[in-house]
Structures are given as C-alpha cells and as structure tokens.
Amino acid sequence: MGQSGGRPDPGQPVTLRLPAWVQVAGSEELMPDYRLTRTAPIALLCLLVNACGSTDKVTVSGSPRMSTFETQLTLLEKEANRVQAAHDIRRLQRSYGYYLDQAMWDEVADLFTDDGSVEIALDGVYVGKKRIREYFYRLGGGQRGLKKGQLNDHLQVQPVITVAPDGLTAKGRWRTVIMAGQVGESAFWGDGPSEVEYLKQNGTWKIAKLHWYQTFVVPYEGGWTKNKDVNGGVYVSRELPPDRPPTEHYGVWPEVYIPPMHYENPVADAMTIPPLDTTPDPEPSMAALRTSIAQLQHRLQLLHDRDAIENVVSMYGYYLDKQQWDLFSDLFSEDSTMEISRRGVYYGHKGVRRAVELFGPQYIRPNHLHNHIQLQPLITIAEDGRKAWVRSRALSELGTYGGVGAWGDGVYENELVKINGVWKIHVDHVFTTFFATYDAGWAYGARPTPKPSADIPPDGPSTVVYESLPDVYVPKYHYDNPVSGAGRKQTVEVPIDGAPASMRPRLARLAQVVTQLEDENAIENLQRAYGFYIDKAKWQDATDLFSEDATFELDGRGVFHGKAQILQHLTSSSPDGLTRGTLMNYLQLQPVVQVAANGETAQGRWRFLAELGEWQKSQAWGSGLYENEYIKENGVWKIKKLHALVHFMPYTGGWAKMAQ
After folding, report:
1. Whether 189 and 303 share a structural domain
2. How many structural domains comprise the chain?
3. The domain containing residue 95 runs over which residues?
4. CA-CA distance, 541 to 631, in Å (whole number)?
C-alpha cells in the first residue's frame, strides 16, 4: 500500500479538482440572506439560538400551536444535520482515496484531527497529524507525488455510515480495493475493509481514527490463488516504529480474519420525528406552516431512507465476504425471495438461509476467498416510503489458495420493504454477467451460468431464462431514464411565504439543505445510470442523459459537441449494440459531487473501472477518472460535460505490462 504504488503516465497530466472544502479546513458562516456557501460543508442547520440544542417551547403571538411547530422544526433541523453529515463523510473518505492515489501525503494528513490516529494493517498505531504525515511519507518512499509509471489507486467503495444522535461523531466501514505497481516491473492487487471514526470540529468533518484491515496484497500474475500475501501486513514499522503496537493481531491471506463491525444488524431507521397533529388550523399562516413542515419532513425521510438502503446494500456484501450467514439472512424479510443467477428461487427467510449454504458453511475458512464488492447502487423509493428498488452491481473475487481463482460480475435488481422502521430485502435477484477463471479471464475462461443445485435444491424454478457471457442479456430496469423519462420536476417547492414571518428563515434554510441533498442524490443516480446504459450499449438512453449543448471527451479522442455528435460517437463503438461475445462494463465508483450555490450547476469527480473484451479474441482492463459538469434544466439534472481521463491495459500482466 503506497510504497509499491504508482500511476502510468496517460499522456497528459491529471489535474485534481476536488472541492475547496476538502483542501482547506474551515467552518461555514451563515449568510445574511440565508444562502449556502459552498466553500465548506454545510455544518450547522440552525439559524436561531437553541435551534439545534434545545427543544424548549417558544410561544409566538400567544399561540401554543407555534410552540409545537417550533419543536417539530427543531427535530427536523437535527435530523437534516445528521443526513447531511453522512453525505459529508462520504465525500471526506472518497477524497482520502483520491489523495492516496496521487501520493499527496500532506493533503492526506490534513484530513485528520490534530490528535487523530492511523493503523494500516499490522504496522501499529501512529498518533497525531505530524506522525500520520511522517508515516504516509515513509509509505511513499520519502517523496511526495508519483514517479512516472507508478500506479497507486486506492478505491474507496461500499460505505456503511452511522452518525451519532448528536450529529458530532460518526463511524464508517469502507472497502479499499488497491491496484498498485510499476509499469514494466510489478503489479499488485490489494483488498481490505476499514473501520473509521469521524469527528466534527468547528463545522468540519475530519478523520479521528482510521484502521485498515488487510485481507490480501498479492501479485497480479496468478492473483490470490497462486500467491500468498506479499508482506504479511507489515509496511514501514520496522524502520519507523509506531506510537502504539497493533490493536489486533491477525493473519493475512491465505489466513482469514473477520474484522469487528461498528454497526448493529439490522440497521433500524433512526429518524424518530413524530407526525404532525392533524387538527385543522384556523389561521392561514399556521396551516401554511404545517404544510411546509410536513413536506420537508416527508422529503427528509426519503433522504434518510436512501442512506439506510445504501447501508443495507453494503452490509449485504460484507456478510457475504465472510460467510456470516445468520447475519446475512437477517437482512431479509420473512416472505422474501432469493434468486442467484439461474440457480432457482428460494422462498422465505429459511429459504435464504438454505441458499447461502451453496457457497459453503457459515464463516469463511482459511485459504478461501469469497469477496463480493457491492457497487453503483441506483436507488428508487416509493413516495409512500414503504417500498424501494435498487439496481446495483457485484464484482466478485473468489477462489482457494493453491486451487482455482475466479472473477464474477453481475447486476442486481432488488426490491426492499420497510418493516417497523427497518429496511429489509424482499426480492433479491442477481443476474450473472460473467463468471470466469482468474488466469484466463472473461474472454477465454468464462464459465456457463450457474444452474440449480441437486444438494440444496431451490423451492422454485428460475423466473428468467438467460445465459451469461458469451451470451448477452439485459436485466429489466426498474426505473425510467433519469432525464428523458423523468416526466416531472424532481424538486418540489416548499410553500414558505405563507408561514409566519418569524419562521420563514429557518424553513428557507432547511428547504435549501434538503434540496441540495436531493440534487446530490439525483446526480449520483444520473451518473450511475450512464454506466448501466453503456454496459449494455444502450446508446440512445445514454445520450438522453446529456443536455442539448453537452460535450463529451474521452482522453485523446477529441471533443464531441451536442447530443447528435455524442450519439454518433457512442454508436460507432458498437453500431449493432451489445452483440454476443462482447463485454464492455463501465463500473461507476467513488463520487465526489459538489452542487453550486445557485443549485443550477454541479461538478463531480468519479472513478471508473472497465471490463472489456470480445469472446475468444481479446480482453483488457480500463481505469480512470471522470471530471464532469452537470446542469439542472426545468428541475431535471443532466450531464453538461463528460471528460474521461483513461488508461487501458492488457488483461494478462495488467498495468505492469501496459505500454509506457
């Protein structure tokens, strides 16, 4: 991690354009007209003294009803603060990954609190910003930045974020996928989860404690089936002694270890704002206030639900990794169904528990790898907040040491239901895109789609008959195109003017915060939909995501202006669509989205991985960054500028053997 990493020179410099709040710590000041500043994360949602710290009732104009609304609004502000915190923390951790990529060690250290700590694998604990900076510099061989031909990608994916009730501390679980090495010399895969603690200081979220658990770091050639871990989890501690010894001792690959998880299972909905009293209000201003608060509460609940559902998607993968079947099955409703590839359907909670035994007994055994990386969740929640649908992706790393290794990629179309405040999986259906041996890859080593087991037979036949690579199948999308199929504005205006004058500033502020969060979610769904459409050569659907005057630039291939040119360019890569034997998956990862102060434009940095090839002819990896711009037109977000900074590499040998 770090010392063996680097980035191949793609032919032009990569300019980091992370938001200013990531690079410069500071607290946000409330503007007199209540507009949001964007130079720092939204830190405090309260405009009035006691707004977030007290539930004291305040009587306005002698109205006890106003006191009730004050309490309700205060609770909403607190909850909005917690939802905003989860979004800020995701940006913080993803930015940590982007800085690691480029060996920007000073920027990495600046993300920590002054008394923060870092523990990487079995190197021990380094305490304080100065020691953290020293540690990362030592990882990088004493230099800042990457040498020509180095790769040091640290993908930060699969977050489970839980924010404390006071909104001032939080914990997160992340997965780091590492691609590191030196062109012409070496290439390595790495993988492992992090448990991270966060602290909000002066309105800015920082990392207080980061502990990365190493699952494996192995050579690219032969991967995890032919290689033991290269360093046993020890990097620089022999030369730079830690301040404290490792907090846990465990074996890395081919040994297995289940790092402790900070969260409970299942995760209950922590939003506890009581419903409004339905007694009619005789005063028009009070009726307007009730309507405003009710609309904001509903919108905030949907945002909270989205975060909870993303946590469920991530937890699903972590439990699969370690074959924690009891915890895994607790994510499902009693009347759920599970359908894995073409293995058939398993019914109910007990059926799910039987189905997972197909992968082996409870708890992973030494010499076995069963990673299921959960990516790219596109979440749609019903307006009543009782059901939700998720299209997501799984990238699987499977195999046994000294045996057979495998890759797998598939798409989920799942349905969830909310039961007593807890989101549960109701329909779990994964469609296999490819399942292939590690060494031969998807073009030469693809295996048939898994079929029903005779030892653990399903309760019913498969609901869809299809075959994976080299065949082509497009799972039905649960959602309409986010742009051409939007049908209505995505942002509903909250009636604020009719509310009492004393309450309007707080309502306006809260409405802005909720709108910003909705905008960020809409942009993430937009970009993730782009990836799912490109995967299946849905060129018209992909083009419909762009504004009329958009630009499209793929590294070194020029700039295409307008939707007509973009469609022509995309179609030229595969005029007949996705034909049999063709694979072109584009995984959309690690978003850092920043919406402008006017709420009409935005910027986003994304990472992508590409799995490319033609059956029995060729195959390749692709990797790179997007630096994109977005625009909101008639309430609908569209891609204004897509700029991809790309490098492709051969499957055999990977980035170690790519052209220099």
Report:
1. no
2. 3
3. 26-226
4. 18
Asked whether the bond before 361 is cis by omega within 30 degrees of 0, the reply is no
Dihedral of CA atoms 3, 9, 12, 17 in degrees, nearest 10, equals -30
Would you state the pLDDT for residue 15?
36
Quote the CA–CA distance of 626 and 526 in Å, as a whole number: 14
Taking CB atoms within 8 Å and a gap of at least 24, the contacts of 12-20 are: 12/555, 12/645, 14/102, 14/625, 14/645, 15/627, 16/98, 16/102, 16/104, 17/603, 17/605, 17/627, 18/95, 18/98, 18/592, 18/605, 19/91, 19/592, 19/594, 19/603
What's the CATH number where 71 sits? Answer: 3.10.450.50
DSSP 477: P
What is d(CA 186, CA 173) in angstroms, rounded to the nearest whole number?
A: 29
**pTM for this one?**
0.89
For 76-128, write each residue's pLDDT tens digit. Answer: 999 999 999 999 999 999 999 999 999 999 999 999 999 999 999 999 999 99
Distance of alpha carbon 3 from alpha carbon 120, whole angstroms: 13
End-to-end CA distance of the chain: 22
Bridge partners, 434 (sequence order): 409
Cβ atoms 316, 408 nearer than 8 A: no
Please answer whether residues 453 and 358 qualify as being in contact, where contact means their C-beta atoms are separated by less than 8 angstroms.
yes
- Per the structure block, which two tokens stand in for 187? 């290439």
If you write DSSP's letter for every residue of 252-270 in order, what string do you get? -TTS------SS-SSPBP-
Point out the domain boundary residue: 186, 206, 226: 226
**From 59-73, 196-210, 390-404, the region with the lowest mean pLDDT:** 59-73
Q: Is 391 in the same domain as 534?
A: no
Q: Are 416 and 553 within one domain?
A: no
Mean pLDDT of 46-74: 53
* Adjacency order of strands within the sheet including 422-437: 345-347, 332-340, 422-437, 405-419, 387-400, 368-381
**What SS3 string covers 553-579?**
EECCCCEEEHHHHHHHHHHHCCCCCCC
Whether 143 and 214 share a structural domain: yes
Q: Residue 246: helix, strand or coil by DSSP?
A: coil
Shared-domain flag, residues 512 and 632? yes
pLDDT in tens, 324-361: 999 999 999 999 999 999 999 999 999 999 999 999 99
pLDDT of 200 over the 90 cut = yes
Does 598 fall in a domain?
yes
CA dihedral of residues 325, 331, 336, 337 (deg, nearest 10): -50
Helices (H), 596-646: none
Nearest to 92 by CA among 191, 163, 8, 184: 163
Helix (H) or strand (E) holding 388: strand 387-400
Single out the residue in 402, 423, 444 at which a domain terminates: 444
406, 440, 449 from 227: Cα distances, Å = 14, 16, 28
486: in domain: no
The reported pLDDT for the residue numbered 487 is: 58
Measured distance CA(590)–CA(603) in Å, rounded: 14
> Vertex 301, ends 298 and 304: CA angle to 5°?
155
| Residues recorded for the chain | 660
